[in-house]
Amino acid sequence: MKILYYDCFAGISGDMNLGAMIDLGVDPDYLKTELEKLKIEGFHLEVQKDMRRGISGTKATVVIENPENEKHRHLRHVEELVNQSSLSPEVKTLSLKIFDLIAVAEGKVHNISKERVHFHEVGALDSIADIVGAAICLEALKVDRVMSSPIQLGGGMVKCAHGIMPVPAPATALIVENVPVRTGLVQHEATTPTGAAILVATVDEFTGQTNFKIQKTAYGIGHRDVSEVANVLRVYLAEDNAVADNTNREEAMMVECNIDDMNPEWYDHLFKKLFEAGASDVFLIPIIMKKSRPANTLSVLCSSKVLPEIKSIIFNNSTTIGLREYAVTKTVLERREEEVVTELGIVKVKTSYFKCKEIRFKPESDEIIRLANEHGLSMNEVEKIIAKNR
User: Fold this and answer.
1) Facing residues of 189 across strands?
2) Which residue among 75, 228, 281, 353 is least packed, with the fewest CB closer than 10 Å?
3) Nearest to 119 by CA among 79, 59, 178
């Protein structure tokens, strides 16, 4: 498994991210050519080698050619630029996801809808190039997973459109909600709203605990050089150590509560809502509580990204008044989906592997039920036919 890991010990900005991606191996000419697909004029990308505190890396600068003519845009204008371009569907989708994160955050700060947000920062050409460029680079690297350390936000005060504010800036603070962060390493804004949104939109797991082999290290050079801390973004290309046995380790959250006073018929509705919200697994364990009362422990396995929604669903759709939550590590076998041609028709199946050896072959239950109904067979008969034709 190919991993992109962000080591944000000194923060991240849009231009630092572009520099790091180019330093990691993205062809700058390819990036420039892809950015031209936006069909907007007035900027160009400059790439050069630079150093911060003795650390060599790549500095990427989006140069605005006529700043006095720079337009400020609303979200719909940015969406039109991206959607009308000839960029790939994947780049368009990720770009708009990043823009949307910032628009929602700015809207909350101003107490207006995201559509009414006036992009005093993100609507500028340099921010558009930073965000679309981030999506282009991620597609070019063709990684399987994106990970990041906790994000260093910085400290002190920052001058923004809202006046003088403490770090993090208001929009940044909203974007990084429910994400591990650190503060105070430097007395300036270490992470910008654009940098924060790029991470939140692309990172699968935030963790300081890593289990991979580093194959390449690269640095994106920041424009600021005023502290003893090197203003750089360090990134790694790595290979998961678990690849050899076809397993993948994932950080997840377990949410639990004990319930002894709820109508059992409510559980079906609760389970459906939890799975719809992104829960990986939901299950009940019978228990005995105080005064010998029979009860159930509700357990929900989920990612940290959907944890707030999962907690909200439990509180609103059950009778519990308290939850337990803790981090867990999942070890998951490699799974592949394929189609098998049988005498009954084409069937979707899942195959699991351990140490490069197939250990489990399982047809989808919905497929078995469908074929059983279509051919007047039992589910057991259908399963045997699928296995025989494989």
Assistant:
1) 154
2) 228
3) 79
Report residue 282 CA to chain centroid gap: 22
Instruction: Kindly report the CATH number that applies to the domain delimited by 248-322.
Output: 3.30.70.1380
Q: Percent of the chain having pLDDT more than 70?
A: 95
CA dist., res. 182 & res. 167, Å (int): 11
More confident call, 110 vs 220? 220
The domain limits of the chain are: 2-245, 248-322, 332-388
Residue 265, classified by CB atoms within 10 Å of its CB into exposed (0-12), middle (13-18) or buried (19+), is exposed
Helix 193-202 vs helix 89-110: crossing angle, to nearest 10: 130
What are the C-alpha distances in Å from 13 to residues 19, 156, 167, 224, 348?
Answer: 10, 17, 14, 11, 43
Residue type, 67: P
CA distance 390 to 386: 6
pLDDT in tens, 299-328: 999 998 899 999 999 999 999 999 999 989
Structure tokens at 225: 């050089």
**Which region, left, alpha or beta, applies to residue 261 given φ > 0 means left and ψ of -120 to 50 means alpha?**
alpha
Reported pTM: 0.67
Query: How far is the C-alpha of 352 from the C-alpha of 333, rounded, in Å?
Result: 6
In the block, tokens 């790029």 appear at 198
Q: Which of 54, 52, 73 is nearest to 131 (CA)?
A: 73
Judged by phi (left if over 0) then psi (alpha if -120 to 50, else beta), residue 68 lies in alpha
